[in-house]
Write a structure and sequence with these properties.
Distance between the termini: 26 Å
Strand content: 15-25%
Radius of gyration: 17 Å
Helix content: 40-55%
Oligomer: single chain
Number of domains: 1
Order of helices and strands: EHEHHEHEHEHHEHEHEHH
CATH topology: TIM Barrel
């Protein structure tokens, strides 16, 4: 079981390269994330294969549907033995509570978190969708709803960590994508931050993809991130 705060995003179109990359990582030093593309292509088997390699798996499918459907999906994820699973906070209170009840009834309940506002969205995108609030205000409102419904945490941009941590202290988890260690490229993420800064602000877990998966030596890239976020590096 890993106590790492780094979750490696296995954003691959099929199982082969995802498992090959995982084979170059140490499950004692990272957890891994399986998202929509990989899960759609490879199905539950890829989660089982990663678990058999010793990895704790964050199943990032962002369930957003009627309460009964989401509850069933979360129940199935729990039966797969995943470490963490997520839903969309915009599904509303009844959906969030149904998801919580479903995982709580499983033999090994995974951590259940909610997506607030995707890190690819900025204020202009939200305005085009009809939201009058900016990202930070909307994230805070959705995170408070998530906590009130009894979930374990939220996915949020690094830019929202500080206000969320003030409003929702630990052990409420803040799972943070949009991490670009050492000033790397932002890619399609708009609200990004460095790894050390994100943890200093109160992030619980850092989701990091291309800086590790795109590296010539993934473990060397991981070691550089670990060096960046250790207390000695501050």
């Amino acid at each position: 079981m890993s106590d790492s705060r780094v979750i490696v995003a296995l954003d691959y179109p099929e199982a082969g390269p995802a498992l090959a990359l995982a084979g170059r990582l140490d499950p004692a030093r990272v957890r891994v994330k399986v998202g929509k593309e990989l899960f759609t292509a490879a199905g539950p088997r890829v989660v089982e294969d990663l678990s058999s390699l010793g990895f704790e798996v964050f199943l990032d499918l962002k369930y957003h549907d009627i309460p009964n459907t989401v509850a069933g999906a979360c129940r199935a994820a729990a039966e797969l033995g995943v470490w963490m699973v997520n839903v969309h906070a915009l599904g509303g209170r009844r959906m969030l509570e149904a998801a919580r009840e479903a995982v709580a009834a499983s033999r090994r309940p995974p951590r259940l978190i909610a997506v607030t506002v995707l890190t690819s969205l900025d204020a202009g995108d939200l305005q085009a969708l009809g939201f009058s609030e900016g990202p930070e205000a909307l994230v805070l409102r959705l995170a408070k709803l998530t906590a009130d419904c009894g979930l374990d945490g939220v996915v949020c941009s690094p830019r929202e960590i500080a206000p969320l941590r003030l409003a929702l202290p630990s052990p409420f988890a803040l799972v943070t994508p949009g991490i670009r260690p050492g000033g790397g490229s932002t890619g399609d993420q708009k609200r990004v931050l460095g790894a050390r800064e994100a943890l200093a602000l109160g992030a619980s877990y850092l989701v990091i993809g291309r800086p590790i998966t795109g590296a010539t030596d993934p473990m060397e890239a991981l070691a550089a991130i670990e060096a960046e976020i250790t207390p000695e590096a501050t």
